[in-house]
Adenosine 5'-phosphosulfate reductase (Magnetospirillum gryphiswaldense), 230 residues
Amino acid sequence: MSHVDYSAAYGHLSGKDLIEVIAHQVFPGKVAVTSSFGAESAVLLDLVAQVDPSIPVVFLDTGELFDETLEYRYRLERQLGLTNVVVVRPASEDLTEAEDLWRTDHDRCCYLRKVLPLARAVEGYAGLIDGRKQAHGFDRQALSTVQVSGEVVKISPLANWSEDDVQKAFVSRGLPTHPLVEQGYRSIGCWPCTRPTKPGESARAGRWAGSAKTECGIHTLVLGSDGAGI
């Protein structure tokens, strides 16, 4: 990767404008989106579809997702016209080890079900677009729209969007909500480690509740030029 200061060059952009520049000018043909098809995913995916519906959207099917998430993925794919959703699953040997590991070792379970599969799937991409936001709290409060992670540039077009901005986008664009949102889920991952949030809690408080864990590891992974964690 060159020594371009990507944050200085493009960090002032956000939303659709940032996606357009990254996908068409900075990393044409070498950018992908990572999406959980969770509670707020429709907003980012809608912006991506407006720019180019053929941009690869990497979807991690961990084997422990809610049925509602799998259904929602198909609904968004059809409604937004996404033409390149790439479903990534853990290797069979990793699934065997993971089994019920979520009961005893959250970090190892996430590593086997999410971090390893994603590292393999994004090999060769120079830029990865995600839906992280400062409004999620915890380690994301200081999140910038453009970050360099090893040999990969991570782009968070919605980093500075508020919860109100997100909800307005749902309404103005006529986007469907994830079925579990009505039940109080504001951040949705694997079913064993996700619960609805309580009044006054941050959006991600329902993830790994009762533990100090706030990230699965896919966004904190440093990627080398070969896509492997370093």
Notes: Residues 106-121 form the longest helix (16 residues).
